[in-house]
Amino acid sequence: MKVFLTLPDKQDLPYSIVSEVLAHLMYPFGDEVATQMAWRELGCRLVIIDEYDTLEAVLVGLIDAKEQVLFALEYPEYVDVIGDYCLSLAITNDEGGGIYLLTHKSHNLEALKESIANAKHLDI
Fold this sequence. Notes:
Elements: E1 2-4, H1 18-26, H2 32-42, E2 45-49, H3 55-61, H4 66-74, E3 78-82, E4 85-91, E5 98-104, H5 109-121
Parallel strand pairs: 2-5
Antiparallel strand pairs: 1-2, 3-4, 4-5
Helix pairs in contact: 4-5
């Protein structure tokens, strides 16, 4: 699992979908420079849950992003299928900041949502 607080570099994204993911991430802002500035100002982030990530690793890795990821799973603005991944966006503040969640299709999102909710409740 990877968490980015700035626009990720191409090598940080799954190779087969790099162009499509970057296009989604930059679309609201126009270009890479504007996207980087907006992400810093608005508090945007990208969480990538890859096919090799275990549920336990995801829970440990989401120390400060559990609530945002849970929100993205429960209330996405949109979800788009890109190759073997699903990209969702949830707006998390009034200024327009949000979280992009890129998950591999091999993950059961309902089980992930339940596990994060339980971990949040148990303060794991």
